[in-house]
Specification:
By secondary structure, this protein is of the alpha+beta class. 44% of the residues lie in helices and 14% in strands.
Length: 81
Amino acid sequence: MSHTKKPDITGCITLGQLNHAIRPLKITSEGLAAFGFEPKVTYMGAKYYRAEDLPEICRTLALGVLWPEGEALLKTKTDAP
């Protein structure tokens, strides 16, 4: 039986913790990827995201999902050099 060494997850939050922070909303890793947020680490099926990205994730969700007009602002922001 081979074991993989647990990666350094310092400064990371799990997808479950992220969903807890944005409750009552919920998002999947695929949904986050659609907004450009990829996990820093995946270990044993758990996705770990940088905790420092949480404010940006929240802003992105608020602009792109909760406020339809914000989608244009989000596109402008992501298209900027």
